[in-house]
Please model this.
Amino acid sequence: MAQHKTKPKLDEKSFLEQYNPADFERPSVAVDVVILTVKNRQLEVVVVKRTEHPFFGFLSLPGGFVGITESLDAAAARLLKSKAKLERVFLEQLYTFGSPSRDPRMRIIAVAYYALVPPEKLHGIKTQMVSPELLLAFDHNAMLEIALERIRGKLEYAPISTELLPEQFTLRQLQDVHETILGRRLNKDAFRRKMLASGQLTPTGILETGQGFRPAELFRSKEQGTAVNISQGQSTSVKGSQKQIKAKVRLNPKKGTP
Amino acid sequence: MAQHKTKPKLDEKSFLEQYNPADFERPSVAVDVVILTVKNRQLEVVVVKRTEHPFFGFLSLPGGFVGITESLDAAAARLLKSKAKLERVFLEQLYTFGSPSRDPRMRIIAVAYYALVPPEKLHGIKTQMVSPELLLAFDHNAMLEIALERIRGKLEYAPISTELLPEQFTLRQLQDVHETILGRRLNKDAFRRKMLASGQLTPTGILETGQGFRPAELFRSKEQGTAVNISQGQSTSVKGSQKQIKAKVRLNPKKGTP
DNA sequence: CAAATAGTGTCTGTTAGACACTATCAC
DNA sequence: GTGATAGTGTCTAACAGACACTATTTG
Model:
């Protein structure tokens, strides 16, 4: 055997010798979070670069162990805050991954969560475009895939798409988000009708400006609250401005003067 | 406390410092299974009587700890077999419950599964009618509630209702199952049209007999496989008879002589 | 024959897709 | 005015609900 390979090779073996997984009575439980956003008609996911073995140098989803007195939801919210500085965003449990071989070090059962956030809240946070080429550590590609399936399905009956937009948005922006998630174009008229009839949107009477064409009315989502209620921190209102839209307070003539 | 044996030097200091299995308090991980069936137009769930504290004497869902080398799916399948003698049935992961106080003894994280089985497979197994009066131990009422939500939602797009019927069944039986799960009556014509158009059913050309009125054609579900594939045991075909139906092999005149 | 349910045909109301048209901004 | 998109109106196709009608069994 070549012994002179002095490169500090990952000493996984000695770890396993010392802590044989077969001796463990209990698995560890971790939480991994699929944090998704839509930016420029493109799905992106928050990733971190691994600095430890296994998958050293690979990208992975942010994750961490669940404290012994901490609920799963609280652990997910804590990770969201510590790894992506996110605090009051849509967060929901996704699926639990428990293959005995999913982590070569030891038995770790991972409860996956997914979060939806507008891109404005991710300044300075590392993201990657969601694509078939994206390679993640562990079974994190499976987690990402299941998260996408979940939101695609949920899009049809739950008002989750507004979680990916600023507080105020136009119907065109909302349609862009839907088209990006579903990966196909949608009918404009039908989309408008369905959204307006759903009762999930509140018209603000404010029109966007600065677009070079007829301005659209801004809407906001009816208060729904996040899926996971974190009873820490207080209700801070989200900034309602987006880069290409400068909302000017002006009544929609249609609403004001019939 | 110098040990006689020096700890092996590991490259992954941070990993060991943070997650030394000897120091890190880990939760136990259990699997609980919501086993549902429909009997006489009534939803029923498999329960066991607790013989230990806490909730001594209460009813609970069948459950047990996950083996250290066992996948979650395998643990659920094992419990299904040991507690209800069920082997090749629809089984799917539901949700993971991790409140630190959900078990007063110790921290136990429970991965809930749900299974759908025809009532014929539950001879000798204790079940309870699903009703608001049913009181279960721990957070098992929440598990049951989430299982019901899941199947109600899934009924609309997935062929899961056939899992609650014998291999061959009439459209009326299928509609009964749907009505029981949804808790409301459905339109007969629309139900027939939708089911036949869905491509999920295969007509057998066989008619039921002994009903005292015009016999209905028997259908079977197109092979789909169970959600959780258990690679133990072999493919045994399910008995196709139900108590009130004696299927006689006779061609459906409509199909044979147009 | 009567009773009871299976299965078919048809009308209607709702909704999504398609398309045409008008409205309103920046330039 | 021109260019571009917002928003409305209307026709059509697909489909679910409703109901009437025929078909087929047991007794």
